[in-house]
């Protein structure tokens, strides 16, 4: 019997079967997160596209956590850059990797820059619709899909959180049938207003040099908050000289006035960018973010 078993094993190896030790190692190997995947938001030209270059093609890069039996939350990430560029490293892909390590899908949005309103908003809304529609494919919880934005990306995220719709059930576009409302928002040193305390560069690109008063009001998101605005965490340093802390403060007050659950981490010091992805202030907002997400039931308590 021992000799017969050995012959079977040798024959199996000749046919490409794994050796017993290899098979055991493969069975014991832990599951790993899949590689990130990038996809454009529209199969053809995006709405209002000016050309056909890469800059005219908004996209998402999807980072999914290690597969598990339970569904995962997801966050669409809007990097900053004054609506003129995208800080896709420390405000995008690095954040997505940090989220994935904690069981949260990170969806990095490459939205159109140097484009006026409403093109960036359409890109972010589309990203929310796609993630919600594909939740089952990606093992996500469709009721735990949020949005996160930094600086001008914070303005974009808060625009989606105050200018959302339930989708068009009669649309021929499968994704356009889904709601683009985030379930929660995390806004880090965000531009919020287009009024006196705005970031001038962001306003000029988004609204043009001479916007109408109505357009300024429409995109001053502190004025667009309602009771249906998603729960929000805001992070901002009082000493931010590029985007005044009043941006976050005004939005926070509007959220409270409308009885929307909100938290404001107002740091006593720190520059815009809060260390650009490193240092104690960056670590502090990330820790506060996880704590806040736990209070909202997005992640488990104690997630670090």
TL;DR of this structure?
This protein has helices at 2-14, 20-28, 89-100, 119-133, 152-162, 200-207, 213-218, 246-257, 280-295, and strands at 37-40, 59-63, 72-78, 105-110, 140-150, 185-188, 232-237, 262-267.
Layout of strands and helices, then pairs:
Blueprint: H1 2-14, H2 20-28, E1 37-40, E2 59-63, E3 72-78, H3 89-100, E4 105-110, H4 119-133, E5 140-150, H5 152-162, E6 185-188, H6 200-207, H7 213-218, E7 232-237, H8 246-257, E8 262-267, H9 280-295
Parallel strand pairs: 3-4, 3-5, 5-6, 6-7, 7-8
Antiparallel strand pairs: 1-2, 2-4
Would you identify the regions where 5 or more consecutive residues have pLDDT less than 50? 1-27
CATH superfamily placement: Alpha/Beta hydrolase fold, catalytic domain
Broad shape: globular
Q: What is the CATH architecture term?
A: 3-Layer(aba) Sandwich
- Beta-strand residue percentage: 15-25%
The radius of gyration over CA amounts to: 22 Å
In CATH terms, what is the fold-level topology? Rossmann fold
Give the % helix. 25-40%
Q: How many helix segments?
A: 9
- The structural domain count equals 1
Structural class: alpha/beta
Main β sheet profile: 8 strands, mixed
Q: What would CATH call the class?
A: Alpha Beta
Number of β-strand runs? 8
Terminal CA distance:
54 Å
What is the string of helix and strand elements?
Answer: HHEEEHEHEHEHHEHEH
Biggest sheet strand order reads: 1-2-4-3-5-6-7-8
The mean pLDDT is 91
């Amino acid at each position: 019997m021992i000799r017969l078993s050995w012959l079977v094993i040798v024959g199996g190896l000749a046919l490409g079967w794994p050796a017993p030790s290899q098979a055991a190692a493969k069975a014991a190997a832990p599951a790993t997160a899949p590689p990130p995947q990038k996809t454009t938001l529209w199969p053809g030209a995006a709405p209002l596209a000016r050309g056909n270059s890469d800059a005219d093609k908004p996209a998402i890069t999807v980072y999914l956590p290690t597969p598990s039996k339970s569904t995962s939350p997801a966050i669409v990430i809007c990097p900053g850059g004054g609506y003129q560029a995208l800080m896709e490293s420390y405000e995008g892909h690095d954040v997505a990797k940090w989220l994935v390590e904690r069981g949260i899908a990170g969806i990095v949005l490459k939205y159109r820059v140097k484009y006026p309103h409403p093109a960036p908003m359409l890109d972010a809304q589309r990203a929310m619709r796609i993630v919600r529609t594909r939740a089952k494919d990606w093992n996500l919880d469709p009721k735990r899909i949020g949005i996160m934005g930094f600086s001008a990306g914070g303005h974009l995220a808060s625009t989606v959180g105050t200018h959302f719709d339930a989708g068009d059930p009669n649309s021929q576009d499968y994704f356009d049938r889904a709601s683009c409302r985030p379930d929660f928002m995390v806004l880090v040193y965000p531009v919020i207003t287009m009024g006196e305390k705005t970031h001038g560069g962001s306003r000029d690109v988004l609204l043009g040099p001479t916007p109408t008063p109505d357009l300024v009001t429409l995109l001053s998101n502190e004025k667009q908050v309602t009771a249906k605005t998603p729960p929000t965490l805001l992070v901002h340093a009082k000493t931010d000289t590029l985007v005044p802390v009043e941006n976050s403060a005004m939005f926070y007050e509007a959220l409270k006035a409308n009885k929307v659950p909100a938290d404001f981490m107002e740091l006593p010091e720190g520059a815009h960018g809060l260390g650009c992805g490193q240092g104690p202030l960056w670590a502090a907002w990330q820790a506060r973010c996880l704590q806040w997400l736990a209070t909202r039931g997005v992640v488990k308590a104690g997630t670090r």
